[in-house]
Design brief:
mainly alpha, two-stranded antiparallel sheet, 462 residues, globular
Length: 462
């Protein structure tokens, strides 16, 4: 077992070395400037679109734009926000949080681009459902079937062995045991049974559950974190200073923290940031393809807010709490770290907020990734393979509770990195399509605005 762990650690370090980090962040930086800082100047419009009702009844798709966003958020807001932030800071120090911010900021442009392409190149499958994602825009946009199949194969791998199963169920059972003293086996059986029932309903069932759970739990968790931060408001300035300082200088060993170099902080921050918001990974575009919309740019803007909500808001709150309460340099790890931070800030009820949040966040992530893996399976083997895929997925969800935490995160990192590579190649290759679609959309908005202004002026004169 030690040899397997050592091999996986080496593979993880190789995959998440400087080349992939540069490719991930570099793609986001390129798209950021190519699109004129779209995540800054168009964020107000994107947020407005998120909370606006769908007005086009003739739009193609299986679920509403909000439902597609919630499905994507269901898959992204999970253990990455609670456990992932804790493991990043535990390994890389407070500076890891800064690199999570950097990855998220540029990742918003990446998320916009990949979700735009997903809607543009989506197709209708044999069951009459919308299918899309990187495998389709790689094949139909780049004309490269080999790269498309590689992405789909890695996507199934992430669903089976990465974000989709092991980290989520392990985090749920661990948190429930710590807080409620319920045996791991009992929790595993219950969660696996519920996952089986919901996933058999497909995207519409998953979207319906996600639309209810995701907004409620995000607000519930954020309010708890916000209360703790306001209670310790005097510590916020020095916490931010520590984060920024640690991002550019090595963090010395202190307490239970072993110390970390700048490169290690950067690697952990970017890797966990990608695990949390999935920008550049190519997963969110699969859910985005199901949205009822006639505009790929509009849906790209809506999808871009997922990274904002996930990392800039929720991960930041978790990270600041871990640092300001001092639990980051203690002996605790994973969910136990975040649990203790909430316990210090909100005695008695704090751990319950983390546990309940973790249960629902992780549960919806499992549902979202079941759908992602299903679409990848359908692309590779056709709709007949979906039943077998679902069966294997459910079995792996049940097995994930009994693996060690270190092994789970290493395995998740490896398959995540492999999935990101073909998607990032496609984004670079199709950068011209992203830019031209964006330009045409906003030129159209300007024209509509001018016509509306002229019409209003004429009416006022009359």
């Amino acid at each position: 077992m030690q040899n397997v762990t050592l091999f996986l650690e080496k593979a993880d370090s190789f995959i998440w070395g400087p080349p992939l980090l540069m490719l991930l962040v570099g793609t986001g930086i390129y798209l950021t400037f190519k699109l004129g800082l779209i995540q800054v100047f168009k964020l107000p419009l994107a947020l407005k679109l998120v909370f606006s009702k769908d007005t086009d009844s003739n739009a193609q798709g299986d679920v509403s734009s909000f439902g597609a966003l919630c499905t994507a958020l269901a898959a992204t807001i999970g253990t990455g926000n609670i456990v992932g932030v804790a493991t990043a800071i535990k390994a890389g120090g407070p500076g890891a949080l800064f690199w999570m911010w950097v990855a998220a900021f540029f990742g918003m442009a990446t998320k916009y681009g990949e979700c735009l392409l997903s809607v543009k190149y989506r197709v209708v499958d044999e069951n009459g459902q919308m299918s899309g994602g990187p495998m389709y825009y790689i094949e139909r946009g780049l004309g490269n079937k080999v790269l498309a199949k590689m992405f789909a194969a890695f996507g199934v791998g992430v669903a089976f062995f990465g974000i989709g199963t092991f980290p989520q169920i392990n985090a749920i059972t661990d948190a429930v045991k710590i807080t409620f003293n319920i045996p791991v086996l009992a929790t595993s059986i219950v969660i696996t049974a519920i996952v089986a029932l919901v996933t058999l309903g497909g995207i519409k069932s998953i979207a319906k559950i996600s639309e209810i759970i995701v907004p409620f739990m995000a607000v519930f968790y954020v309010l708890g974190a916000l209360f703790i931060m306001i209670s310790n408001i005097q510590l916020i300035p020095q916490t931010f200073l520590l984060v920024i300082k640690s991002a550019f200088t090595p963090t010395a060993a202190t307490g239970g923290f072993l110390g970390a170099s700048v490169m290690y902080a950067m690697r952990n921050g970017v890797a966990r940031g990608v695990f949390s918001n999935e920008s550049g990974l190519g997963s969110a575009p699969i859910a985005t393809a199901a949205a009822k919309t006639n505009s790929c740019v509009k849906q790209g803007l809506i999808s871009m807010t997922g990274t904002f909500f996930d990392t800039i808001i929720i991960c930041t709150m978790t990270g600041l709490m871990l640092i300001m309460t001092g639990v980051w340099n203690g002996s605790l790890q994973g969910a136990s770290m975040t649990n203790e931070a909430f316990n210090q800030g909100l005695p008695v009820i704090g751990p319950y907020i983390v546990t309940v949040g973790l249960i629902f966040f992780s549960f919806t992530t499992i549902l979202g990734w079941n759908y992602y893996g299903e679409r990848c399976t359908e692309y590779l083997f056709g709709v007949k393979a979906i039943k077998l895929y679902r069966l294997i997925f459910i079995v792996l969800v049940g097995a994930g509770s009994f693996l060690k935490l270190d092994m789970i995160w290493i395995l998740a990192d490896i398959v995540n990195g492999l999935m990101a590579i073909p998607n990032l190649i496609a984004l670079i290759g199709l950068r011209g399509v992203i830019a031209s679609e964006t330009r045409l959309y906003f030129e159209g908005l300007k024209s509509e605005s001018k016509i509306a202004w002229k019409s209003k002026t004429v009416n006022e004169e009359n």
